[in-house]
């Protein structure tokens, strides 16, 4: 569970209007259940995908980290870090490099 001092909860409340391209709460819950995220990427939650077979994973802790993983292998140690600051990443247009090789 995320501590009450975590950056995640205030961020979701403060910047929810920024998430036009990121899944809504119901979609996040459904997607994480369907994709069995906690089984494949324990400690992370999927917040979106790139419509090209890759999933954006956000670390569920006080540490900010966003990863992109192949949907066929969502193990965090096989994923790429695309940001260590969620607010900065969102404010910069959700940009990331496409370095994952299939």
Question: How would you characterize this protein structure?
Answer:
It is a single chain. With 102 residues, this protein is of the alpha+beta class. The protein has one domain: SMI1/KNR4-like (3-Layer(aba) Sandwich). Helix content is 26%, strand content 21%. The chain has a four-stranded antiparallel β-sheet with strand order 1-2-3-4. β2 and β3 form a beta hairpin. The radius of gyration is 13 Å and the shape is globular. The chain starts with 7 loop residues before the first helix and ends in an 11-residue tail after the last helix.
Strand tally is 4
Ranges where pLDDT stays below 50 over 5 or more residues in a row are none
Radius of gyration: 13 Å
Q: In what range is the share of β-strand residues? A: 15-25%
Overall structural domain count? 1
How far is the first residue's CA from the last residue's CA? 33 Å
Quick overview:
The protein is of the alpha+beta class and 102 residues long.
How does the SSE layout of this entry go?
Elements: H1 8-14, H2 25-34, H3 37-40, E1 44-49, E2 54-59, E3 66-70, E4 80-83, H4 86-91
List keywords for this structure.
4-stranded antiparallel β-sheet; 102 residues; alpha+beta; SMI1/KNR4-like
């Amino acid at each position: 569970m995320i501590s009450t001092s975590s950056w995640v909860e205030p961020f979701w409340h403060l910047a929810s209007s920024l998430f036009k391209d990121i899944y809504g709460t119901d979609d996040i819950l459904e997607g994480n259940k369907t994709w069995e995220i906690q089984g494949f990427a324990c400690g992370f939650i999927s917040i979106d995908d790139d419509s090209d077979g890759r999933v954006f994973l956000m670390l569920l802790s006080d540490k900010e980290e966003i990863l992109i993983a192949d949907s066929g292998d969502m193990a965090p140690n096989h994923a790429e870090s695309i940001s260590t600051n969620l607010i900065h990443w969102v404010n910069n247009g959700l940009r990331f490099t496409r370095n994952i090789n299939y």
